[in-house]
């Protein structure tokens, strides 16, 4: 039995309300939602892949590509948002040339937007490969990315 089939065996076939939990389980196990996984889930839930993509892309948390060698989790919770996370996200987007959920062509970077990471007093917060960076400012990003490139190349 494949990993996906193992996950699907915990759900009822054709149950559309299971879509999001299934996608979460698959992403947790595989790291992202591959095209073949979406097709298999669609067949199990009797849903078109177009509909699944449409619903899944509504959520910032789902990824459709393997993560980069360096993966950033950028907090976009309310407090970080008030403290300027959107400006940080814009600079990251511009510097890396990708949107949340995508991976750079060279495979170095990917990022996702998250809900509160529990460090509101020290926000904006970015978690990079398990290390928390606090009080991040937009002007910090170019230098941060340069250092991360070197780190990615060592991986
Ligand atoms: S809102 Fe970002 S850490 Fe709480």
Concise account of the structure shown:
With 155 residues, this protein is of the alpha+beta class.
Fold topology:
Blueprint: H1 3-8, H2 19-30, H3 35-45, H4 49-56, E1 70-75, H5 78-82, H6 85-96, E2 109-114, E3 126-128, E4 131-133, H7 141-154
Parallel strand pairs: 1-2
Antiparallel strand pairs: 1-3, 3-4
Helix pairs in contact: 2-3
This protein binds FE2/S2 (inorganic) cluster.
Number of domains: 2
- Level of helix content? 40-55%
Distance between the termini: 32 Å
Mean pLDDT: 93
* SSE succession: HHHHEHHEEEH
Ligand inventory reads:
FE2/S2 (inorganic) cluster
Q: According to CATH, what is the topology of the largest domain? A: Glutaredoxin
The gyration radius over C-alpha positions equals 17 Å
Kindly name the structural category.
Answer: alpha+beta
- Tell me the β content: 5-15%
